[in-house]
Amino acid sequence: MMSNLDGEWDCVVKSPLGEQKSTLTVKTDGDRFTGTNAGAMGSLDVLDGRVEGNTLSWKMDMKVPMAITLDCTATIDGDTLTGGVTAGAFGTSPMTGTRKA
Q1: With contact defined as beta carbons under 8 Å apart, do 62 and 70 qualify?
Q2: pLDDT of residue 2
Q3: Which CATH number fits domain 7-96: 2.40.128.120, 3.40.50.10710, 3.90.1150.10, 3.30.43.10?
Q4: Per-domain residue ranges for the chain?
Q5: Which of 1, 43, 50, 61 minimizes the number of CB atoms within 10 Å of its CB?
Q6: 3-state class of 93 per DSSP?
Q7: CB 62 within 8 A of CB 71
Q8: How far apart are CA 8 and CA 29, in angstroms?
Q9: What is the DSSP string of 22-51?
């Protein structure tokens, strides 16, 4: 059974480098999930994806413009996603998203 978290999400992260738009793909399996986050700088795989209620948490290994591990969280409420992306010393950038039709 597909959960209400599954699907594609149009996301925007307000990062120190400006607004970063991407498409987050979520496929849950119990308390885990897999997927990708694809944007202008390429596609990153979801690593260590976890599901707790309607909140997702995961990591991504970014290579450009620098090599850094991103820690991400997102809470889904219906067709709306809110969360953040933490990039080490750069702190946490807010992330918002909407479900793709």
Answers
A1: yes
A2: 56
A3: 2.40.128.120
A4: 7-96
A5: 1
A6: strand
A7: no
A8: 16
A9: EEEEEEEETTEEEEEEEETTEEEE-EEEEE
Q: What share of the chain is helix, strand, coil (3-state, %, to 5)?
A: 5, 70, 25
38-80 tens-digit pLDDT: 998 789 999 999 999 999 999 999 988 889 999 999 999 999 9
Close Cβ partners of 73 (under 8 Å, ≥ 6 residues apart): 55, 56, 57, 83, 84
Percent of the chain with pLDDT over 70: 98
Say how many CA atoms lie within 13 Å of 6 toward its Cβ: 11
**Cα 82 to Cα 10, 29, 34, distances in angstroms:** 11, 21, 18
HSE, side-chain direction, 13 A CA sphere, residue 57: 6
- pLDDT (0 to 100) of residue 1: 52
